[in-house]
Amino acid sequence: MKAASIVLLGSTGSIGVNTLLVAKKFGIDIEVLVCGSNIELLNMQIKEHKPKRVVIANKEDVSKVLHPHVSFGSEAILEAIEEAKSELVVNALVGFLGLRPTLKAIESNKCVALANKESLVAAGAFIDTSKIQPIDSEHFGLWYLLQERPIKKMIITASGGAFRDWPLGDLAHATLADTQKHPNWSMGEKITIDSATMVNKMFELLEARWLFGEGEYDAIIETKSLIHALIDFKDGSTTAHFAHASMQLPIAYALDEKMDEAILEHVDLLEVGSLEFRKINKERYPVWEIKEDVLKNPNLGVVINAANEAAIERFINKEIGFMDIATVILEAYGHFRETPQSIDAVFAIDKEVRAYAKAVHIK
Question: With pLDDT > 70 as the criterion, what percentage of the chain qualifies?
């Protein structure tokens, strides 16, 4: 069924921009736009899509927004979700701040087209995944490939990030600017750092675990980002999902489940010529050391997420080096082993881990 209208959280990011393109293509109304501080782009979106309501991050920017119904702050986002008539919320917010909106949308009996990784990573045990349609290309790829045949393993792919070809000895000296030189595409600052550390892929494995249930999950590097997911079946066969790297395809299916028109050009394998696959190794990506333990203890995702966000903040502030991000995460993950028993406990642990991660001493 095609959505009549949507609430879009994170409208000025790459996923938000692509969502608006798809919504325009399908004639879907935008009821609410939510963004951070890119007011210039927001005003262009308001002019084109005419939302009924707008929510931004900061009070001081309200007067700059060209709309009669503007509010600000995290509580205003929750209020807008609750009061919206739209049955679909597209959550493209970045970070832990996207969790409460996901919970509010489900509580309000709305479905969520989810790009906010941190919602499931931190609180997957407390989220009704029947209300979730993933719009990460990897989870969309797994969903697309699923058949009623016995599965052995579900596999997602990684680009390898900005440092996949760097000499290992140089990684300790990598700067913030270096982390942003992604080999395949342009994304936001945090997610590009997460791609370089491979934390992003750890998160996606955790998301897959919550979305598709217990089982065997893994990730490999595919350098051209044309294969997004693979499934190994018990009979010995493997299927792969090929598509050009564009968020518009998973977004299109989230907005209209009966997708029957071209969204992307097909991948021309003759033009591609060859593909390269690599193992994700612990020397280049130290967080991979805990991958198996994390998948056995998915409720501890809140620890990894909180430590990662705190460590990235320290890295951006030049308090620690690039490789120290993983050091902080591993230190926190070893220290905090208590499984949250409620959603309130998730928020309490998040706060405690952040404080701990900010104080981890780097030698």
Answer: 100
User: Is residue 81 within 8 Å of 73, Cβ to Cβ?
Assistant: no
Can you list the pairs that 174-182 forms with residues at least 24 positions away whose Cβ atoms lie under 8 Å? Answer: 174/321, 174/322, 174/323, 175/322, 176/315, 176/316, 178/322, 179/322
When pLDDT is cut at 50, 70 and 90, the band that residue 262 belongs to is: confident
Distances in Å between the Cα of 332 and the Cα atoms of 68, 206, 283, 310, 335 are 45, 18, 19, 11, 5
97's tokens: 């701040």
Name residue 312's amino acid: I
Asked if the structure places residue 288 within a domain, the reply is: yes
- DSSP annotation of 236: S
Q: What residues make up the domain containing 153? A: 139-296
Last residue of a domain, one of 273, 296, 319: 296
Q: How far apart are CA 80 and CA 88, in angstroms?
A: 13
What is this structure's pTM? Answer: 0.94
pLDDT in tens, 300-320: 999 999 999 999 999 999 999
Give the start-end residues of each E strand in 302-359. Answer: none
- Distance from C-alpha of 154 to C-alpha of 209, rounded to nearest angstrom: 10
Closest CA to 308 of 15, 96, 93, 9: 96
358 occurs within a structural domain:
no
pLDDT value of residue 187: 76
Residue 192: pLDDT band (50, 70, 90) is: very high
Residue 251 — very low, low, confident or very high, per pLDDT cuts 50/70/90?
A: very high
Contact 128, 104 (CB under 8 A): no
Residue 186's pLDDT band, with cuts at 50, 70 and 90, is confident
111/217 Cα distance (integer angstroms): 26
Q: How far apart are CA 260 and CA 258, in angstroms?
A: 6
Edge-to-edge strand ranges of the sheet holding 238-242: 238-242, 227-233, 151-158, 217-222, 277-278
Indicate the number of domains in the chain: 2
